[in-house]
Amino acid sequence: MSDPVIATQPATAYALERLEFITSGHMSETLDRACQPTHPTIYCIGLHVDPQSQGLGVGTTMVRWATEFADSRNAAAWAHLSDSTAGIKACEKNGFEEVNTVTVDLDEYATKDTNKRWGIYTHHCMYRPPHA
C-alpha cells in the first residue's frame, strides 16, 4: 500500500470546499496512480447491502459480478469504499488490493452551530488489475 494522500488547501477556502478538494483530489490522485491508460477500467462506487441482508454473501456476490463484468472486457476494476470491514473483505475475496486511504475528521468541516459530531471517516481505494 502506498503512503496516504496528503492534501492541502489554503486556509481561506470554505470548509466544504476544502473537504471536496481533499476527497475529490484523493480519488483523482489514486486513479492516476492505480489505473493504467492501456486498459479500460470499471468503477465500483456506492455498493451497499441492506443491514438485514448483511452477512449473507450479498456484498461478495455484487463485487464478484462486477469483477466478472470487468474480466469479460479485459478491464481493471477500482473500488472506492467507506471504512467498512465487510466491504473491504468482499473486495479482497475478489482480487482487489488496497492502494490508498484518506482519513478525514469530518468535525473539522461541519458547521460550528451544532453540537452534532460527525467523527472520523476513512475512504479506502482498492484496485484489481485486468484478468483476461
Structure characteristics:
132 residues, Aminopeptidase, alpha+beta
Report on this structure.
It contains three helices and four strands; from the N terminus they run αβαβαββ. It is of the alpha+beta class and about 130 residues long. The chain has a single domain, classed as Aminopeptidase, CATH 3.40.630. The protein has a four-stranded mixed beta sheet, with helices on both faces. Strand 1, helix 2 (about 60-70) and strand 2 form a beta-alpha-beta unit. The longest helix is centred in the N-terminal third of the chain and has 20 residues, at about 15-35. The model is unreliable at about 5-10 (pLDDT under 50).
- Contiguous uncertain segments of 5+ residues: 5-12
Order the strands across the largest sheet as they lie in space.
Answer: 1-2-4-3
Q: How much beta, percentage-wise?
A: 15-25%
How many beta strands in the DSSP annotation?
4
Class per helix and strand makeup: alpha+beta
What is the CATH class? Answer: Alpha Beta
Quickly describe the structure.
The protein contains three helices and four strands, in the order αβαβαββ. The chain is of the alpha+beta class and 132 residues long.
What is the strand and helix layout of this fold?
Layout: H1 15-34, E1 41-45, H2 58-72, E2 76-81, H3 85-93, E3 97-105, E4 120-128
Parallel strand pairs: 1-2
Antiparallel strand pairs: 2-4, 3-4
Helix pairs in contact: 2-3
